[in-house]
Amino acid sequence: MFGVSWWVIWLVIAVIMFIIEAVTTGLATLWFGIGAVVAMIMDLCGASVPAQVIVMAVVSIVCFVLCMIWVRPKLESLRKKNIQRTNADRLIGREGTVIVPLNGIEGKGQVKIDGQVWSAKADSDIAEGIKVTVKAIEGVKLVVEIAS
């Protein structure tokens, strides 16, 4: 093909796939890169071009399937295990007291929990002195509801 050896073409394909994988980190093009490396090795060993193409496709598919079955679930569990909760996350589910009335429309007000004052918002107006429970955190504001 245009005087270029097939091993060079496979090498270029592999490098391009690995660069795309490094940029996207989605485990999408890595398998084509691995298949291209195997095809490149086959060319250097004297295999025919059709055999190289077939092996490249088979190796890419097998690597992709193995990833979906074995590698990706392990990576997902590691990613979930390494999530670090912030100090603010510990407030979800906690009870506090409204110290500045909460305005449901403007999303303004303040709540005191464990001696700390937090900006808060609620779906409805809540008067000062009412006990509230933290449902979530949006940015730097606690999202609260009247405690049950």
> Radius of gyration in whole Å, from Cα?
28 Å
Shape annotation: rod-shaped
The share of residues in extended strands comes to 15-25%
- Write down how many β-strands occur, each being a DSSP E stretch of 2 or more residues: 5
Outline the low-pLDDT stretches: none
Percentage of helical residues?
A: 40-55%
Mean pLDDT: 88
Widest sheet: strand ordering: 1-2-3-5-4
- Structure class: alpha+beta
Q: Regarding quaternary structure, how should these chains be classified?
A: single chain
Provide tags for this entry:
3 helices; 148 residues; five-stranded mixed barrel; alpha+beta; 24% strand
Describe the structure.
By secondary structure, this protein is α+β, with helices and mostly antiparallel strands. The protein contains three helices and five strands; from the N terminus they run H-H-H-E-E-E-E-E. It has helices at 6-24, 30-44, 49-81; strands at 95-103, 108-113, 116-121, 131-138, 141-146. A five-stranded mixed beta barrel has the order 1-2-3-5-4. Strand 2 and strand 3 form a beta hairpin. Helix 1 (6-24) packs antiparallel against helix 2 (30-44). The longest helix has 33 residues, at 49-81. The radius of gyration is 28 Å and the shape is rod-shaped. The mean pLDDT is 88.
